[in-house]
Specification:
- Helix content is 59%, strand content 0%.
- By secondary structure, the chain is an all-alpha fold.
- It has a single domain, classed as 434 Repressor (Amino-terminal Domain), CATH 1.10.260.40.
- Helix 2 packs across helix 3.
């Protein structure tokens, strides 16, 4: 199963879904799908935007199982 930590890190920064989507310039719906795993292949550009906003690496956010 695909698992990322977008929601965990977003919530730890105190941002709701709408605020975070606006900051990374993607739709709220797309962000929601990424968080729940129903969209599994975001572009490198989207992964970079999300990771940078969370002050994390792409690996930390999108590939947490490789960090363990």
């Amino acid at each position: 199963m695909y698992k990322n930590r977008i929601r965990q890190y977003r919530k730890s920064k105190g941002m709701n879904l709408e605020e975070f989507a606006k900051k990374v310039h993607i739709s709220t719906g797309y962000l929601c799908h990424l968080e729940i795993g129903s969209r599994k292949n975001p572009s490198m550009q989207i992964m970079e935007k999300i990771s940078n906003e969370l002050n994390k690496t792409i690996a930390e956010v999108f590939f947490p199982e490789s960090q363990e």
